[in-house]
Amino acid sequence: MLSHTLTGHETLLVRHKLLPEEDGEHRDRIIEHVLPRKRKIPYMLFVVLGLESAVSGCALGFQNTFMEVLVLCIAIASHIWAEAFTLCTALLKAKVSDGNAFKAMVVYSFITPLSTLLGMVLAIFLTGVFLEVLSSVLIALAAGVFVYVATIEIMAEEFGGTHLRWVKLANLLGGFSFMAALGFVF
Questions:
Q1: pLDDT value of residue 23
Q2: Number of domains forming the structure of the chain
Q3: Helix, strand, coil % in the chain, rounded to nearest 5
Q4: Is 4 contained in some domain?
Q5: 109 falls within a domain
Q6: What's the domain range around 42?
């Protein structure tokens, strides 16, 4: 019998009777299969969030008007703090050592500024239609990766349990409404 309590994905498996509660051996075997995957989630999240930050930073570096830079800076600033908080929380939940979590957060904090510099350098050497197409593709990739991270990684983790589900839903809808209002303003 395992000595830890069931949380997250494991609770969903028990609730849907994929893990019979009375069959201890069967339950332990499946739980041992699920637990190692859960320990990989912070690292997958680091890669996905790092990719999104790099693409957003490059797209920011490509912009050539003040208004384009302002809009992209507001978009990045409005969510990067939440990404960093989510990444740090995921690292700590997975019991990653404090030193490794700190290193990951330092690396993550440099991704956007360094990729912005890279985008600025590339913008000097690239001109014309190619720069416009590359900038548009990077903005689309950043938006797509952000939507993926928000819906698949973060929301799945947050809504996995039953604790404060209605409060979380209200906050989610409030955030969607706020971002939609920003879309109309800008």
A1: 53
A2: 1
A3: 85, 0, 15
A4: no
A5: yes
A6: 9-185
The answer as to whether 1 is a domain residue is: no
Q: In this structure, what token pair is assigned to residue 2?
A: 């395992």
3 within some domain? no
Within 13 Å, how many C-alpha atoms sit on residue 108's CB side? 25
Burial 91-128 (b: 16+ CB within 10 A, else e): beeeebeeeebeebeeebeebbeebbeebeeebeebee
Per-residue model confidence as pLDDT tens digits over 53-112: 898 898 899 888 899 899 889 988 988 888 899 889 888 888 888 898 999 999 999 999
- pTM score of the predicted model: 0.61
The CA distances from residue 26 to 22, 31, 39, 70, in Å, are 9, 9, 21, 56
pLDDT tens digit sequence for 107-125: 999 999 999 999 999 888 8
Residues listed for the chain:
186
Q: Which residue has the tokens 């990067």?
A: 80
Residue tagged 């997958």 (tokens): 44
